[in-house]
Design a protein that fits this description.
The protein contains six helices and twelve strands. By secondary structure, it is an alpha/beta fold.
């Protein structure tokens, strides 16, 4: 028969005290906050248009980084803000093709002023070739309903400009999306948004009605080739958030003395918050100094 020797009273008291202290500590330590569920996440690649050679080393590195990121966490697709092919030449389109075909995700591009050196038909041919069936395009302008937001891809009508018909198309899409918030993808934002080159951008005054729509959450653009570390690249004007996408192969603003290739990743939570992370090519960690976030507009 096994017998248990009773513990002295002082041991029982000490044990009870330890239990109480453990319970107090557990109550005092807050439980880790639950992360909000990701409703949508996509990466955005900026201008490439390398010169003088049709070589895309930084775009290739960004594609590799996005693929690696997508293997670690959810990424739904990749956006392009235009100006991939310098002067729209066949040589540049052909050189960019194997680079973009390496993307594991669908790639949704628009035209920039460089592509308008050639035809819309050439752009559409290569946009489809870049995707190899992951996405298909029959127009330079299109809409993508992605659950929590509607993505409106608005290639310009010429250069980086919109004529009245083009503005009317964008306005119609934004209104039709309501009450859902809209992310508008354009090559260049309207003139004056970025004072670093305030005269460059959309000039049609009718575009003011587009940015006045209550469900327009953000305008995502490239074109200016700005150095993220030396400009004001993310801002709110009125009720709209403006997010610049830096160029991958060449920096122009404020000057050409320093080029750091970067890309950005947008995340929309189920709770209606949008966060924008910026990654330097080759660095798997987002750059805290360029973090930006905002709440999506709520339907009234």
């Amino acid at each position: 028969m096994i017998r248990f020797r009773p513990k002295p009273l002082r041991y029982l008291i000490a044990a009870a005290q330890l239990v109480v202290l453990s319970l107090v500590a557990a109550c005092a330590t807050p439980a880790p906050a639950a992360e909000e569920t990701v409703a949508l996440r996509f990466a955005v690649l900026g201008d490439a248009e390398p010169k003088p050679l049709a070589e895309f080393p930084n775009m290739a590195a960004a594609v590799a980084d996005v693929n690696a990121l997508a293997s670690r966490e959810r990424i739904d697709f990749v956006v392009g803000v235009g100006d991939i092919a310098h002067k729209g030449t066949l040589l540049q389109y052909e050189a960019a093709t194997p680079v973009l075909q390496a993307l594991m995700l669908p790639f949704y591009p628009i035209m920039g002023n460089e592509e308008f050196n050639e035809t819309e038909e050439r752009f559409l041919e290569f946009a489809n070739r870049w995707n190899e069936g992951k996405a298909t395009f029959d127009s330079r302008r299109y809409v993508q309903d992605e659950g929590p937001v509607v993505m409106v891809y608005a290639s310009p009508d010429f250069s980086r400009q919109f004529n009245d018909e083009g503005v009317a198309w964008v306005l119609e899409q934004v209104k039709a999306a309501a009450p859902k918030p809209v992310f508008l993808i354009v090559h260049g934002a309207q003139v004056g948004v970025y004072p670093e080159n305030a005269e460059k951008g959309i000039e049609n005054p009718a575009f003011a009605e587009v940015v006045a729509q209550p469900n327009l959450a953000a305008v995502i653009s490239g074109d200016l080739h700005m150095d993220m570390d030396r400009v004001d690249h993310s801002k709110q004007i009125g009720e709209v958030h403006y997010l610049h996408i830096p160029a991958l192969e060449r920096t122009k603003i404020p000057d050409e003395t320093r080029h750091t290739p970067m890309y950005r990743v947008f995340t929309v939570s189920e709770g209606g918050e949008a966060t924008v992370d910026t990654y330097e090519v080759g660095n798997p960690a987002a750059l805290e100094r360029h973090a930006y976030s905002f709440d999506l507009p709520v339907a009234e």
